[in-house]
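Sample A.
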Amino acid sequence: MSDHASDTHTPLHIAVLTVSDTRDESTDTSGGYLVEQAKLAGHKVVAKAICVDDKYKLRAQLSQWIADGNIQIVLSTGGTGFTARDTTPEAFNPLFDRVIEGFGELFRHISYGEIGTSTVQSRAFAGFANGTAIFCMPGSTNACKTAWTGILKEQLDSRHRPCNFAPHVAPVSTND
């Protein structure tokens, strides 16, 4: 057995963040999709929020979640494009202790097969902060499906071999 995989499923505690100036709970199909898939995979969704495309509000929300001992994974959708309001990378990157370069690279590789060269306009990225793994993807539901089915479903499954992210996140803290 690999030291990075387990024979048993370990449910992770996940927070979902939708970055949007226009979405609310009734129109947030991307965040809704991520919540649904995380639950279907046996994880526990412990928080969900919609935050406007504002660098400092985004940074405040993420800071709160990475300081929360009950959150191990953050799935963020939106704000990764090139419009003036797309500031998720600028908001989150300064908070990262370590970047997960392969997430954005693999996302764009998979996405190329779906949308061709338009994938170069995706700034999907990921990193670790305070033992929390943060995965940021574009705001379209199709992009969230690409990230979930092509990467996250397996990489958040403690049984996936030869390795996955489950052993790399901080254990849930009951002291918060």
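Sample B.
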Amino acid sequence: MTVILRTVAELRAVVRGWKAEGHVVGVVPTMGALHEGHLSLARRAKAECGRVITTIFVNPMQFNNPDDLKKYPRTEEADAALLNWVGVEVIFAPAPDEVYPPGFVSKVTVGGVSGPLEGTLRPGHFEGVATVVAKLFGMSQADRAYFGQKDWQQLQVVQRLVADLNMAVTVVGCETVRDPDGLAMSSRNLRLTAEGRRRAPALYAAMLAAARDVRSGVPEAQAMARATAAVLAEGFDSVEYIALRDAETLEAVTDPDRPLRMLAAAWIDDVRLIDNIAV
């Protein structure tokens, strides 16, 4: 039976006992509103670790739009039932003042990879991500941490954080889970209207077409422009970016022989969708 813990002291006491028994501890950080993508991370953690923690915390520090924070779905009871079914041992669901107690002033900033794309459009977002992830790693004392590749830039930020600060945790990036029509699973999809949900897979389809264009020799700028036009033609409200970048640094491509990633962000139904694919 999955146990829900609310305080750092409770969590550390449990983890101390696990480690005394020789267990490898895995953590799956989430903001709740769980879907099959999250559950795939939990199952991977269960397969590779003796004990697993899933954190559920809607982190106010990473929202640069207060309205977006307010609208973010919160479904703890349903989430707990799903995690119990998967077999996760502990849910850590702290209150905001447990994570950021009175007097809290510290922030973690990761340079470089956090700067382009999301970093430009959402100032302070990755500072919030890096800070809460560093805290969750410290609270959980986990040996392995599982993140989805759907948030590709976030995954690179976390990997850089761990490398630069010599954190004793292995970061595992897991494949994006998609619905049968190609839409990347996201908690934000719950906010789409029926019509918006029908149109939403156009983002992924346009990215696949752009990747084919690039591989066949179409100039990068032309391929990205075609993809943007295709997404808008399918009824999206706006496209913030569809960009081909170095997969590790997220900078513009200067060496086409390095691994590349196409990343996108677009709005439909007042919902911001992001996605990425390898190229």
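B remarks: The chain has a mean pLDDT of 97. The two ends are 42 Å apart (CA to CA).
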